[in-house]
Amino acid sequence: MSMPNVPKTLGVSVLMAGMAFGSAAVMAADGPLRGNIRVVIGSTSTGGDTYQNSSIVVDALSEKLDLNMKVDAVGASSAFRFLDRDSRGNTLMIFHDQSYLGYLYGVEGYDNIFEKYTIGPTVAINPGNAYLVPKDSPYENMEEVIEAVGNGEEVRVAIQPGGVSEIGFSALKNAISIEYPGMEDNLVAVNTGSQADKNQQLFDDQADLINGTVQANEQYTRLPEDDQKAMRFVWLTARQSTIEQAPEEGLGQTSREQLLQYVEPNVSVTMGDENFTFDKEFFFLYNKDMDPAIVEQIDTALSEIYAEGEIQEVQKKSFFIPNFKPSDEAAEYLENKMTVYKEIIENIQ
Amino acid sequence: MLDMLSLLDITFFLLAALGALVGIIFGAIPGMTATMAVAVCLPLTYALGLHHGLALLLGLYVGGISGGMVPAVLLNIPGTPSSITTTFDGYPMAQRGEGERALRVCVVASVVGGLISAAVLFLFAPLLAEFSIKFSYVEKFLIILLALTVIASMSRNMLVGIFSGVLGIWLSLIGTYSISDGGNGKTRLMFDFLEPYLFEGFSLLPVLIGIFGIATILLEAEAGVKSGLSDKEIKIGKGGGFSMGLFRGRLTNLVRSSFIGTFVGMLPGVGGSAASVLAYTQEKNLSRDSSEMGKGAPQGLIASESANNALTGGALIPLLSLGIPGDSTTAVLIGAFTLQGIQVGPLFIPENHDTWYVMMTALVFANIVMFFLMFYAIKHIAKVVLVPKYILYPLIVMMCVVGAYAINYGIMFDVWTLLIFGVLGYLIQKVGLEVAPLIIGFILGGQAEIYFVKSLESFGTFSIFFTKSPIAMVLWGLIAASVAFSVVMGLKSRAKRRLEAA
Questions:
Q1: How far apart are CA B430 and CA A143, in angstroms?
Q2: I want to staple A276 with a disulfide (CB 3.0 to 4.6 A). Which of A171, A295, B195, B400 is the partner?
């Protein structure tokens, strides 16, 4: 209740006015990137992982480059359009694997990012992509799900079609077609929208398995079994090595040790010669005609930021796994990744 | 508890008050919304910390929803989509020179709605969240259908009204059935060359501002610009003819509408505009005398404004007890938690007692600040109508254009939408169609489609709409009653007209 708080409040109001009405252009004295930088993201949600992760990275970058940078949650189709229009480098984009999975699934508004844009550095992984069943489900684990479908039982999976939410489903279908040829049609996709919709399908008994995330669903897994809302993890698509990098305490009250039970090799969804895994990775996308010197500048700045080591702590605190790869390396790595998933999607068509 | 009190310092209250003030300004500018205000200030939560950040954001939320009443009443432009029903009675009152009185009714109704919903949130959040998950696609579709029945009771000529409503629904279907909603993402109801512009359909806010604001200006321009209301015609100062007596006999309406607002708020994906539309319908159907509604009756304002402010508490129910935002603003608000690495889900309240109490304090305080700020500022705000129209209207058009351009972060087509619908709004009134049913059809059409299709996808049979649950049956009862009421009222007024003609 002390007075010294008042100046702080006034300071905050001034800061707020600045945020709200656009502060004067800050010019970086050196380097090709200048003016106000808008970082558009492929999600419209400010509560989601893309916004959260982009904010962490853009904050650090803005400080390093001494530039005014702001994350704008405009959604995929708008973000691509904004990026198309600006080759000066004042609009950058951050998105994740959805950007090429949308193309592989033939979603309207998605082109081949590797042809149309310049791929920038990767910055982090969200290891939380998960599949859940109701707590009182007859299926104890993924093996039982696969076996049930193989034996002719229909299993309904609630997903949001056309991307990250669907890739695990496609892999599962592919695995069933390998282990129980001809039975894969018993795995049925229930097309829904948001996480709320997917959860609701489970509560209504309209789905047997849903796609979710560790972040959004962890609290539901701690509800008592007689609660209609109670769920259980059965599969995390991340690589074991990714989850091993998570903080030991895990997320909420689910420890890393517990989470490791749900990843490969404890859970195996086969692709033939190896098991399927999927890490949701965040990376920059640039306009193709943007000055290569800017690509270089951001790569260098991020290399320095990651070398300092602070950002990793912030990312891990928010349950992201730091994963910086400079542009060239990232482009090659992501294109290879796309090839693997392309095969899966083609196999089941 | 002591821990919690130590979090409530003077900065906390100043931020909540500042939030309410800035929110009111955002809400009052056509094209700017509570959601935008919260989105713009979201990154500040980094600097402020969670609790101070929440004070600011909740202030913005409450202020933003309330501010929408100002242009709705004075200029016939809903400042936010949820204040659309406020224009129905507010603007006719303002035209009669009762703008200040209308705004005071709105402010009192708003604060009551806000506080009732905060109380419901505080006392029953987990219980109600449990109830809200009983509403599947089927029940949500029926809620929207119930709100759509307002079209029948609100029309001057029922057939024309229903036609206008269907036209509105048709307009809302232009664009795509989005893949993220489980559709096929293919464009429809347009020519190929329009695809780049209409991929996501017409944006709601430019349509609203165009069809109300720009069309009103065009109609007035046609009539010729007069000097506007003079000081003498307009009742300003000394309360503008307002007294608490206006609420006598309206308590049921006030409380009912507040509960409807809270209830719709807690259903994720049903949306804010449905709340005030539903409350308005129910007042129209249930009140003893609703013949003046739509022509400038305070009871319409009470229903609309108490319901849209009650949304705030309602929409926080699923956010804090399921981790699911109840409306578009709370969808942004959830970012304040994720940015701080705090999970919101079914265990949020039991695991974060301090934050929960802090939020409740901020919510109640913001409502009170909003009340005092607006109740005493209205005298001055209401003078807007004294500004000569040849100065006022160009300013409004400019603000509308800027707002429309900004709403989706710089899409020029939204400005065209504004102008197209401005002209369309003018033309439909000229040919005798009705604007209100059309716009309600437009607002609710998209959701009606999604929930209808998803119900069928999930359950595979039409009979599910009738047999899904007892809740569905009750909703059908309400829909039938609402339609029957409209028919009876329609027949009565026709008989009355005939009698008068004879």
A1: 67
A2: A171
